[in-house]
């Protein structure tokens, strides 16, 4: 991968994180290209990372892998213009735009185009992302490995079996950080209300969240067993868990994830109608 030229159409936060992850993992900055409508973003990237910057046609001419990182509402126009610039040149296309399906991309680039649809999440910005990937039938095993290597530079990456599975990935990990942020926000606020300082409430909440995730990842026990292990009968944890259960936390989580998946499907339909 170190000798592959990778281009980014769009230089926002997620592209920024991927670019920095690639460089940290040994990709030469001169082998990375980026374009964006905002020249100030490109200038900062060039200054910080010493990558190549230019227009979309420059990327079409030079890159072996092109990451489509523009906003979903701009994808149609960007992809149609890029397809014209490619003029049949074979590249691996990796889309990280929410609500843009493989069928959309194939309609713009052609069914023979090698396309990987990916849903990353914002912890990728600190190298701890969780991403789901789906490849169409034109993607070779070598290209699949290449796509996984690119996305894995910013965290965990795994393949799903169907394009529609990306809508579920979106609901679980794509939107998931916000769910944990909301829970942590509530914990922080209540700790302050009960008398802790803001700094202490924040520190305890952050370290508890990070520690729980690390313990779950490294333990041989499943998540339900870990929960039971810290829930002593008649103790403080049990009392808190009872409040969550009485409030139907599980049902609320299910409703939230299903709502996010439905919205992902709706975004695809909105792209069809525009």
TrEMBL record:
UniProt keyword annotations, A-Z: Amino-acid biosynthesis, Cytoplasm, NADP, Oxidoreductase, Proline biosynthesis
Subcellular location: Cytoplasm
Pfam families named in the record: F420_oxidored, P5CR_dimer
UniProt GO BP: L-proline biosynthetic process
Positions with a binding annotation for NADPH: 56
Main location class: cytoplasm
Domain annotation Pyrroline-5-carboxylate reductase dimerisation: ranges: 164-267
Residues at which NADP(+) binds: 9-14, 69-72
InterPro entries reported in the protein's UniProt record: 6-PGluconate_DH-like_C_sf, NAD(P)-bd_dom_sf, P5C_Rdtase_cat_N, P5CR_dimer, Pyrroline-COOH_reductase
Pathway the protein contributes to: Amino-acid biosynthesis; L-proline biosynthesis; L-proline from L-glutamate 5-semialdehyde: step 1/1
Catalytic activity entry: L-proline + NADP(+) = (S)-1-pyrroline-5-carboxylate + NADPH + 2 H(+); L-proline + NAD(+) = (S)-1-pyrroline-5-carboxylate + NADH + 2 H(+)
Family annotation (SUPFAM superfamilies): 6-phosphogluconate dehydrogenase C-terminal domain-like (SSF48179), NAD(P)-binding Rossmann-fold domains (SSF51735)
Keyword S-adenosyl-L-methionine: no
GO cellular component: cytoplasm
Protein EC: 1.5.1.2
Residue span, Pyrroline-5-carboxylate reductase catalytic N-terminal domain: 5-99
Domain of life: Bacteria
GO MF: pyrroline-5-carboxylate reductase activity
Keyword Membrane part of the UniProt annotation: no
General function of this protein: Catalyzes the reduction of 1-pyrroline-5-carboxylate (PCA) to L-proline.
NCBIfam families reported for this sequence: proC
Family assignment from sequence similarity: Belongs to the pyrroline-5-carboxylate reductase family.
Record-given protein name: Pyrroline-5-carboxylate reductase
Species: SAR86 cluster bacterium
Gene field: proC
